[in-house]
Amino acid sequence: MTEWSFLTNHARVLVCIAHDPGVRLRDIATKVGITERTAYGIVTDLTEAGYVVKDKDTDGRRNRYQIQTHLPLPETISRQRTIGEVLALLVDHDSSQPALRKRQQMPAL
Of 23, 24, 55, 105, which has fewest CB within 10 angstroms of its CB? Predict the structure, then answer.
């Protein structure tokens, strides 16, 4: 029997970044169950689409990511949702979490 997930690898990578904005590609790959090269490609996709902003940390050795939660999902589902609204369902985070630019309340579906 094949394994499957409700979330795409892109969504799963986004959840990893939301949990830890300083996460390494190696750790993303391990958590999601993909290669490091695939993790790099997904982070690049998310960055190029504007959903994630990538900056170097203070010593310039590691990347830090910031999710642009105000942006809408790329798909159109019943009502337009933002990345932040979906992440609020998937990630248990506090208001001090730096990876999420703007925390919004999730309206009822």
Answer: 105
